[in-house]
Write a structure and sequence with these properties.
Helix 1 (2-58) packs antiparallel against helix 4 (158-208). The protein is of the alpha+beta class. It is built from 10 helices and 11 strands. The strands form 3 sheets. It has a 5-stranded mixed sheet with strand order 6-8-9-11-10. It has helices spanning 2-58, 66-79, 109-116, 158-208, 223-278, 285-316, 329-339, 341-346, 366-383, 440-450, and strands spanning 82-87, 92-95, 134-143, 146-156, 324-327, 350-355, 362-365, 388-396, 399-406, 454-460, 464-472. The longest helix is centred in the first third of the chain and has 57 residues, at 2-58. It is an enzyme of class 2 (transferase).
């Protein structure tokens, strides 16, 4: 992550510095060019105006005398510029300076020729004996056809170059300030980007190690925040998948343990009886018949367990196809009550059926509805020793409500939420007396949901339980 941070910092720094340097460089070059051109042009025009004013003051003087020199000195002080006069041959005959060191020097022949032909401005001036560059203008000296020579006004370029130097220095300082500011901005931007990225990296590493409860905390509202939210969503889904995996693993382990337990008990009994019979320990025919009866009972228990397991697996894998037709609930309830009537009488229990008048039919698989009721009644018979078992059906809005009510031992409040689980048994302490697979109610729940219904149980320990299922009714228009 440190390398990534350095890479981000380096790329941002190069980008910002390149932008600043190129931008200020181009701006400085363009600004210098146009400013220099503007200053030179302005200075030339100013010198040209002053040169014409000088000529207006001395155009009647064609001889160099003290009066002319005094005028030149006065104009020098007024315009703050040097004034030279040269004759028609190009020789300097008078200056506005006190010393006469330039007197007798010659100007360039081209300049003298241009001025004598009426050209009034020159930007380059070459004077014998002078090496310093000057910005100069020249105009004819005289009036009309009376041209005595030329007037030259010049100003050293040193001041203009100094201005340009100051401008270049200002641009350089601005560039240095821009570089410094860019470095500071890049450092901050790099920090603001790399800090949440490091947080995301640490969180991703924790998620990679299996800590799916870890979340990214980013207090920005940009693309990095969107990335953090995506990672949080992914972690949430992974956490949910992991929880489901653990749950499925626990269910699988519980399933194997329960199946092993349910199979071990009857198989152990069968093995013990077979060994006794095989070793000839049971000689009396009556005793052998009892052994055979017990083994038959245990074998039937294993068969019921296998059948229930197959039914439950098919239901959970959506491999059960319902043959739905209009079903008369009262008819199914009476048939189920009749099939358990003898068993209820043997235990001294009353079996009753209550059906509301003009109860509408349900659209369902008749055999599966009978299986649901048989499992509920069988469960009620198992845990009811005195009293009665009643099946009751009534209309409740869009559903037909079917209840199986018993006066048995009841179910503890802590067990109510688990009553529909596979292999869960309320009578864990009395499982030897009440044999069952522990799958009946799980099958009931799956079948009810397969019919788009719902189920619920209410119970009071010592007073009995009420199992209620709701199945969609057939609407009158159907």
């Amino acid at each position: 992550m440190l390398g990534m941070s350095k890479s981000i910092y380096r790329r941002l720094l190069v980008s910002f510095l390149a932008t600043v340097l190129v931008g200020l460089g181009i701006t400085g070059i363009v600004l210098s060019f146009f400013t220099k051109e503007y200053i030179y042009n302005a200075k030339e025009e100013e010198l040209l105006r002053m040169a014409k004013k000088v000529n207006a003051a001395i155009h009647n003087s064609n001889e160099v005398n003290k009066q002319l020199l005094d005028k030149l000195a006065m104009l020098d002080e007024s315009f703050d510029t040097r004034i030279w006069l040269f004759d028609t041959k190009g020789k300097i005959v008078a200056t506005s300076m006190k010393d006469e060191m330039l007197t007798g020097k010659s100007v360039a022949v081209s300049i003298a020729s241009n001025v004598l032909h009426g050209k009034s401005a020159v930007t380059e001036l070459q004077i014998e004996g002078l090496d310093d560059p000057m910005l100069s203008v020249s105009v004819p000296w005289g009036e009309g056809e009376n041209v005595y020579g030329g007037i030259i006004l010049h100003a050293p370029i040193e001041g203009i170059e100094k201005t340009f130097g100051q401008m270049r220095e200002s641009i350089l300082w601005a560039t240095l300030f821009g570089v410094l500011l860019s470095t500071i901005m890049v450092s901050y931007l790099s920090w603001s980007i790399s800090r949440p990225l490091r947080t995301i990296e640490r969180t991703a590493a924790e998620i990679g190690r299996g800590n799916y409860a870890e979340r990214v905390q980013v207090d920005t509202s940009d693309e990095i925040s969107d990335l953090a939210q995506t990672i949080n969503t992914m972690a949430q889904k992974l956490e949910k998948v992991e929880q489901e995996r653990h749950h499925l693993e626990q269910v699988r382990n519980d399933f194997l343990a329960n199946v092993s337990h349910e199979l071990r008990t009857p198989l152990t009994a069968i093995q013990g009886f077979l060994e006794a019979l095989q070793d000839g320990l049971v000689e009396e025919e009556e005793a052998r018949q009892k052994y055979y009866a017990v083994m038959y009972t245990e074998t039937m228990q294993v068969n019921r367990l296998v059948d229930d397991l197959m039914d439950l697996m098919k239901l959970e894998n959506n491999e059960v196809n319902l043959a739905k037709f209009p079903v008369d609930v009262a008819d199914v309830m009476n048939r189920v009550a009749f099939s358990f009537h003898q068993e209820a009488e043997e235990k001294g229990l009353r079996m009753g059926v209550e059906v509301e008048d003009e109860l509408p039919r349900i659209y369902a698989d008749k055999d599966r509805i009978a299986q649901i009721l048989k499992n509920l009644v069988k469960n009620a018979l198992k845990f009811t020793t005195t009293g009665e078992i009643r099946m009751r059906a009534s209309l409740e809005e869009e559903y037909v409500q079917i209840q199986v009510i018993d006066t048995g031992m009841g179910i503890a409040a802590d067990d109510l939420d688990r009553i529909w689980e596979r292999f869960f048994k309320v009578d864990r302490g009395r499982s030897k007396n009440n044999k069952g697979t522990g799958l009946g109610l799980a099958i009931v729940k799956e079948l009810v949901e397969l019919h788009d219904g719902k189920c619920r149980v209410e119970s009071t320990p010592g007073k009995g339980s009420t199992f209620t299922i709701w199945l969609p009714r057939i609407k009158p228009e159907n």
